[in-house]
């Protein structure tokens, strides 16, 4: 099936939205917020999950994330000096952990392109919650480098991986990554991760109508009984460069119907508070969930907003803190950090930023009038991380 493209004019300068400086008032002793692991925002959502983007570079050019016509050979990527160092990332992560973060996910771009990423993983693996528990430390990757790097990642302390895989058909997969990368190499990377124990492995498939929706059932068949969790993600309106249209979205309810027609499913309870995916288990002949057959998930951020329980903060490659995947403004923690901020001041800044959070873009999406100017300023997924 041929993919439909819509014309777009994109000001590249808008790919990295404006950021706010940390106010001086948040550094004053009268406004200190002592960390107690229970930091909540204005809607009572506690901080539990931190996504850290370690690079804005990727070796794929997926049309829904980093389309080639925008991210071409002349695209101005961040200079190395702008990136947070591993020591800076670890120092910031420690403050987030004191405020309640229990899970850290490394993202990109493609995080395995960051040189010596295993060194950062080793540093983060030493962090402990106030109760003394290790973090849930994971990483999202396109799988292109996973076969070679899986052993080192595991040895450094990474617990599990999520692999983006949008098709099993090689022609479809090559067309979607737009760099002619073969699907067999990603599957080999998944096998390598499984062998070294980087699991349970999750497989993420972004579904775009007319592009790869014919791969829904083949993917479900392939991963059923594999011990890996396949998750179908609605094509999202992140940023301004992917030419998003509602017509391209395959609602999660339709995904479930397609799979149900051949492979019976039963709904499962959420495994963790704030979980983005709705869980469905494969049923046996009696209609009861069969754990040996495994499960799938659907992430319905377009058709079924889950803002009310979102517990995630996002730290960009250059140290900007965003409170929503669809944000149009962040907070500049890098300048504050490099301005000789103490740990107490960093902790206090994080507390004030999160406690003032009111983001709920997905809940409001349907009521918002189209505004190309505002849409163009939203942060790109390749910059903020998924």
Helix-strand blueprint:
Blueprint: E1 19-20, E2 49-53, H1 86-98, E3 103-107, H2 117-124, E4 136-141, H3 146-156, E5 160-164, H4 170-177, H5 183-196, E6 202-207, H6 216-223, E7 229-234, H7 252-260, E8 265-267, E9 278-282, E10 295-299, E11 312-315, E12 320-322, E13 330-332, H8 333-338, H9 343-355, H10 361-364, H11 372-377, H12 381-384
Parallel strand pairs: 1-13, 2-3, 2-11, 3-4, 4-5, 5-6, 6-7, 7-10
Antiparallel strand pairs: 8-9, 9-10, 11-12, 12-13
What does this structure look like?
The protein is α/β, with parallel strands linked by helices and 386 residues long. Helix 1 (86-98) packs parallel to helix 2, helix 2 runs parallel beside helix 3 (146-156) and helix 3 (146-156) runs parallel beside helix 5 (183-196). Mean pLDDT is 88; it is low at 1-14 and 369-376. The protein has helices at residues 86-98, 117-124, 146-156, 170-177, 183-196, 216-223, 252-260, 333-338, 343-355, 361-364, 372-377, 381-384; strands at 19-20, 49-53, 103-107, 136-141, 160-164, 202-207, 229-234, 265-267, 278-282, 295-299, 312-315, 320-322, 330-332. The protein contains twelve helices and 13 strands.
Mean pLDDT over the full residue set = 88
Give the tally of structural domains.
1
* Order of strands across the main sheet: 1-13-12-11-2-3-4-5-6-7-10-9-8
Structural class computed from helices and strand pairing: alpha/beta
CATH class, anyone?
Alpha Beta
């Amino acid at each position: 099936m041929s993919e439909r493209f819509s014309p777009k004019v994109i000001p590249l300068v808008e790919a990295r939205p404006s950021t706010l400086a940390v106010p001086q008032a948040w550094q004053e002793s009268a406004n200190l917020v002592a960390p107690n692991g229970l930091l909540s925002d204005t809607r009572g959502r506690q901080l539990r999950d931190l996504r850290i983007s370690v690079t804005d570079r990727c070796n794929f050019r997926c049309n829904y994330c980093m389309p080639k016509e925008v991210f071409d050979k002349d695209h101005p990527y961040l200079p190395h000096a702008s990136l947070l160092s591993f020591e800076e990332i670890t120092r910031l992560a420690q403050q987030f952990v004191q405020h309640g973060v229990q899970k850290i996910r490394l993202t990109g771009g493609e995080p395995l392109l960051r040189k010596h990423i295993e060194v950062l993983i080793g540093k983060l693996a030493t962090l402990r919650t106030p109760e003394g528990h290790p973090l849930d430390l994971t990483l999202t990757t396109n799988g292109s480098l996973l076969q070679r790097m899986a052993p080192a990642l595991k040895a450094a302390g990474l617990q599990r991986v999520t692999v983006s895989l949008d098709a099993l058909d090689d022609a479809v997969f090559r067309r979607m990554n737009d760099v002619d990368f073969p699907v067999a190499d990603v599957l080999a990377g998944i096998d390598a991760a499984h062998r070294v124990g980087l699991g349970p492995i999750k497989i993420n498939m972004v579904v775009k109508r007319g592009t790869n929706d014919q791969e829904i059932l083949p993917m479900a068949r392939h991963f059923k009984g594999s011990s890996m969790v396949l998750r179908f993600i609605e094509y999202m309106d992140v940023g301004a460069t992917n030419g998003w249209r509602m017509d391209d979205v395959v609602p999660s309810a339709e995904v479930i119907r397609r799979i149900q027609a051949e492979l019976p499913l039963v709904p499962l309870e959420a495994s963790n508070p704030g979980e983005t995916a709705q869980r469905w288990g494969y049923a046996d002949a009696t209609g009861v969930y069969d754990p040996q057959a495994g499960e799938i998930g659907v992430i319905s951020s377009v058709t079924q907003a889950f803002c009310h329980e979102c517990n995630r903060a996002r730290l960009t490659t250059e140290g900007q803190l965003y409170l929503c995947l669809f944000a149009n403004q962040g907070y500049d923690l890098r300048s504050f950090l490099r301005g000789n901020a103490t740990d107490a001041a960093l902790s206090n800044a994080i507390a004030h930023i999160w406690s003032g959070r009111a983001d709920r873009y997905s809940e409001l999406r349907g009521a918002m009038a189209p505004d190309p100017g505002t849409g163009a300023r939203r942060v790109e997924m390749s910059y903020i991380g998924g």
